UniProtKB/TrEMBL annotation:
Belongs to the HpcH/HpaI aldolase family. Gene3D superfamilies: Phosphoenolpyruvate-binding domains (3.20.20.60). Substrate binds at residues 74, 126. Keywords: Magnesium, Metal-binding. It comes from Jhaorihella thermophila. Its cofactor is Mg(2+). PANTHER family: CITRATE LYASE SUBUNIT BETA, LYASE BETA SUBUNIT, PUTATIVE (AFU_ORTHOLOGUE AFUA_4G13030)-RELATED. InterPro entries: Aldolase/citrate-lyase_domain (IPR005000), Citrate_lyase_beta/mcl1/mcl2 (IPR011206), Pyrv/PenolPyrv_kinase-like_dom (IPR015813), Pyrv_kinase-like_dom_sf (IPR040442). It holds the Pfam family HpcH_HpaI. This is (3S)-malyl-CoA thioesterase. Signal peptide: none annotated. Residues 13-220 form the HpcH/HpaI aldolase/citrate lyase domain. GO terms for molecular function: catalytic activity; magnesium ion binding. SUPFAM superfamilies: Phosphoenolpyruvate/pyruvate domain.
Amino acid sequence: MAEKIDPRLRPFRSVLYIPGCKPRALDKARSLAVDAIIFDLEDAVSADEKDNARETLKEALAQGGYDPRVKIVRINGLDTDWGQADAEAVMQMDADVVLLPKVSSADDIDALAAITGDKPIWAMMETPRGMLNAAEIAAHPLLTGMVMGTNDLAKELQVRYRPDRMPLMTGLGLCLLAAKAEGVVIIDGVYNAFKDEEGLAAECEQGRDMGFDGKTLIHPAQIEIANKAFAPTPEEIELARRQIEAFEKVQAEGQGVAVVDGRIVENLHVETAREILAKAAMIESVLGF
Ligand SMILES: CC(C)(COP(=O)(O)OP(=O)(O)OC[C@H]1O[C@@H](n2cnc3c(N)ncnc32)[C@H](O)[C@@H]1OP(=O)(O)O)[C@@H](O)C(=O)NCCC(=O)NCCSC(=O)C[C@H](O)C(=O)O
Ligand SMILES: [Mg+2]
């Protein structure tokens, strides 16, 4: 069983993909205000650069400078020419998590774990079969996070792009249910039009409303928007403080329900309020951005 990162406490607002073959981008990431980085050996790296990318990434991680960002390495699938070597190489790298693409069942996680031992595994959720098997994938003892691969999912489902993402909703919902049932991290897919700030902000808001912990990103220009959308707002922090205060007051009087702004506040609301404050404090004290 891999130690779970509590997604209610550890922020994953912004999770940036960096192609493992690009030294300049790998270097730049050391100063970027992201909560986590996906060092990519899969789709962002062309076939003739795969071996080189593995070495470049190994060196960059050995040099360090990425803490306190969570370091995730996305390998190629084990059914490709590079997957086995990637998985073996990750064991020599200073990485927190190994991310497996196109996971379709818990057997895929078992196959990776046969190489990577007890290293925590995240799953790219991007195939129709993966959506149908989301519950067993999330329940795997080594699985600590899921990442939506909305490009591959859209391709497999043969959907048309729509700003409201209606054709993807069943898949997003199934994965969210599975992740929440098991208490694992779940990150929304990328927004491809990286110069469209308004479109990205709208999609981040939608993802936050749905319960995603954060957004995967492809360009540094997207970071600030995701960090803002997935952090507790000043209004949420202020309300959380008032809810806790009001509840503690009625509790001291032997009652179990407070009223704040015309709405009831019970124990479960106070738990949410405490999580909001803990996440805000974590962003402030550990990350500072
Ligand atoms: C999209 C890009 C190809 C654009 O690159 P570029 O033209 O170099 O952008 P800029 O000139 O604007 O870059 C400015 C500086 O920022 C650095 N940079 C760019 N991108 C990144 C990055 N991702 N991480 C870190 N730093 C980055 C440049 O080096 C410039 O730095 P400097 O010169 O020092 O100022 C490019 O952004 C890119 O390659 N992005 C990543 C694409 C990627 O990772 N794709 C795969 C993941 S998406 C996916 O597969 C999802 C899933 O599987 C699914 O199915 O949906
Ligand atoms: Mg993909």
